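[job 4417] fold queue: 2 targets
>>> target A
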Amino acid sequence: MKTNSEPEKRTYWVTKYALTEGIHEVTGYVKSNTRGLPMLVADWPGAPNGWALFQGEDWHDSLGKARERTVRMAERKIIALQRLLSKMQQIALDSTRAPIKIVVCEQETE
């Protein structure tokens, strides 16, 4: 029998790793962090203690919201990769702009 101090667990969706592992469906409960903001305490089998904390936009109470967040994450990642590709193409076309770092390694003599 549940006591009043035990929070009610239900299903939530975690998008923190959505671009690398996909959306995780987890069981957990919501509580306030030290700043009074909601955070998810979720059962997480891979964690040393068996649970994990998720804050901000890393968790959602519906699959639809999780999917929307994942789309926004993917769009932002694509823009960042396009910027990086543009920089790399400029470097490849103009060898005088190539970043060069010379590191001198000295062997210790005894």
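>>> target B
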Amino acid sequence: MIGGKVVEDTENNLEFSREEDVEVRFPKIDEAIIEKIRDSRENLDDLTLDEIISFYSEVGELWEDESYRLREKAEEIARLSTGYSASMIEQSFDNFVDFLREDPLRRTVKGEIGDEEYLDEWVKRGDVRVHLQPRGRILHVLAGNAPPVGPVSMIKSSLAKNSNVVKFPSGDPATPIFLALSFRDVDETHPITKSTSVLYYDKNSEIEDKMISLSDGISVWGGQRAILSVREKADHATEIIEFGPRRGMQFVGKEVFLNDERLEEVAKNAARDLAIYDQNACFSPQVAWVEENADEFCEKLTKEMDKVSEVIPKGYASEKAKAGISQEKSISDFMGDEVYDPDSTEWTIIKTDDVERTKNHPLGRTLYVIEVENLNEALEYVDESVQTVGVS
């Protein structure tokens, strides 16, 4: 979709080899399309924040209906392209719909900007008046590890009254494009619709260079290689917001073990966190630090992992990924670590004392558990690579 208009073509394709082979075809980006993007800069500064939130709330109402045709298509293709289970994709979209409501959208603005008035008015601060201006055209280079997460980047950009160009990821071509197409179902002439373009181009291509040069700001998600590539090509005046590779941790305090119900609740939440996106998201926990009672925590967590696997089955895993997990389990056994698993690679819990072992992580619902006398001992490992710490 370019400037809110559908472009139909099938010159390019992406192929996925999962349980079944899948091919997705889409238009090739040429000079004519680039010109359309260049000309589609719609001025959202004329909209009030209320109007923007109202538009996205209407989009959310469409996606709330599980039988909405674009949601059905997006879920089907996302399941095939990402390899995640159908229940994982469905829950992901449900969570995304919850974001597309007035209260969460307003909380987002308040949390990241503060006073809403800065977006609509000139606000008096001391002897001056302050107003937040949109940056302009924002290029969003998305990653496909967590389907609905990337489009949130586009929505936040719209809340700040920017126009958006979204480069959908090869791992999830469906979610961004079908979300954008749903804008047309709300109002195909709306400024947000007309200021939105969703497309795909190859890395390190001439098209990529041109898209970067057209952008006033870039939001890039993914690995270090993708981020460095954008950083090297962007003009020094182009603001780049980076969402690079990160990991999560869990901190479990000794107080949790004073009450069986509390321990069960924490283990249930820990299992769900481990299962979400099969541990591929930046917030996914890779290491759990447990005060004094690691064995008890592991025992309880194994039971909850069995339960969560029934509700959210693990998705597709390549033979290479399975081999990586199996190898890590073998090494752990050899090193004297305690390994908990269901005699498969569905999930794995490894109790270890070796922090260095946790840095070469196989993912795939694998959690290293390290016992400490005091959680303060773990603080030195919360570095810039850690995005999220769940504390219980």
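[job 4417] complete. Note on B: The mean pLDDT is 92.
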